[in-house]
Amino acid sequence: MATDFQQAREALGRRLRELRGQRTQRDLADLLGWPQAKVSKLETGRQTATPEDVIAWANASGHPSSTEELIARLQGLETHTRSWRRQLRAGHRPVQDVLTVEYERSTELRAFEGAMVVGILQTADYARHIFTRYAELQQSPRDVEDAVRARMARQALLYEPGRVFHVLLWEAALYAAVVPRDVLAGQMDRLTSVIGLDTVQLGIVPFGAQLAIPPANAFWLYDDRLAIVEDWHAELWLDDAETIGLYRRVWDTLNKSAVDGTQARRLLSRARAQASDLA
What are the chain's domains? Predict the structure, then answer.
């Protein structure tokens, strides 16, 4: 089974291929003074680039401004604790690209979010405000529109057969005014529209539900191989079976307090009405 390191290396390779553009591998190899095989291995994730490699690649491909982004991607390859400071050195778009790799290779995904709507179900307007606020907080480059486009493109996976998204939201996420009220109202419409999709199972933990554990930090489970846990300073990429099992128990426990279907629609309708009244 491929590791998260390998998947991130392949994502870096795809980015290198994108920067190569219309040049052939042979042309780029000649410019760099490398064997063509090295170019091929870097693009397919079969060889780990060095900082000198990605600097040379950015310059030879005519994209010297991409150097910082490529270095940031390279530095994020081998650590399970991925600090936001390091990940966001080149903005939010590279982070979205790496995550897309994990989505694409997964068939059963589970998420819990208590503070905002999960990215895979966000509207473009909602995502735009979220990326902007986090860029301000982390003092990272403003590539908001690129990040929004990447997140919206990933949502095509919601409509592909053979993949199921099990999403849990605490009701508080429906009311968190981290975006303008009209954007929040539109987001409630978006959540309502996914109820009934055979690839999405949306559950909402109501305010008044009896809880066995507190609805704490957000996390994603990718099949039974990876848990990504969010904190203010970093993401934790955890792939040991014991830890993944713990997060699965957390998800299952919270899910017992959740409602779905018609009851979830009622909660969304109530949240939308309040957002519209206050807009």
Answer: 1-78 (1.10.260.40), 106-278 (3.30.870)
Which residue pairs, CB below 8 angstroms and at least 24 apart, start in 28-36?
A: 28/57, 28/60, 28/61, 31/60, 32/56, 32/57, 32/60
Sequence-distant (≥ 6) Cβ neighbours of residue 266 within 8 angstroms? none
pTM for the whole structure = 0.74
What would the pLDDT profile of 96-154 be if each residue is shown by its tens digit? 998 998 999 999 999 999 999 999 999 999 999 999 999 999 999 999 999 999 999 99
Query: Is residue 260 a contact partner of residue 202, using CB atoms and an 8 Å limit?
Result: yes
- Cα(272)–Cα(179) distance, rounded to whole angstroms? 13
The span from the CA of 195 to the CA of 118, in Å, is: 15
Residue 158: exposure state from Cβ atoms within 10 A (0-12, 13-18, ≥19): middle
Helical axes 4-20 vs 51-60, angle rounded to 10°: 20
Distances (CA, A) of 163 to 24, 48, 111, 147, 188: 35, 30, 14, 23, 23
Helix 25-32 vs helix 36-43: crossing angle, to nearest 10? 120
CA nearest neighbour of 99 among 233, 237, 193: 237
For residue 241 the two structure tokens come to 């079976």
